[in-house]
Specification:
There is one protein chain. The chain has a domain at about 1-30 and about 50-60. Helix content is about 10%, strand content about 45%. It has one helix at about 75-80; strands at about 5-10, 15-25, 30-35, 40-45, 50-60. The strands form 2 sheets. A 3-stranded antiparallel β-sheet has the order 1-2-5, with no helix packed on it. Strands 3-4 form a two-stranded antiparallel sheet.
């Protein structure tokens, strides 16, 4: 069966992020199986509590104001060495 997950993330200042995830909030993650043969018949229903809440906190170290440097591809580097 299908299950539903829900998550939200919030950036606090520039370096901190808080994330909250609720997994299988609809409580629909279960197994329903039926086996029928001429000699044997079986029906299995497995329901378990698969709901999980997760809380994550992330902190990025270093200066957040530094721009990413422009990187050249290896082919551009090769052409520069040839010329």
């Amino acid at each position: 069966m299908a299950s539903g997950d829900l998550g939200i993330q919030k950036a606090i200042k520039s370096a901190w992020k808080i994330k909250f995830i609720l997994s299988d909030f609809t409580h629909t993650d279960w197994v329903n199986t039926k086996i029928i043969t001429p000699q044997f018949s079986s029906k299995v229903v497995i329901k378990f509590d698969s709901r999980v809440a997760l809380l994550g906190v992330t902190y990025n170290f270093g200066n957040q104001q530094i721009k990413n440097r422009q990187r050249k591809s290896s082919s551009e580097d090769e052409l520069r060495r040839i010329n």
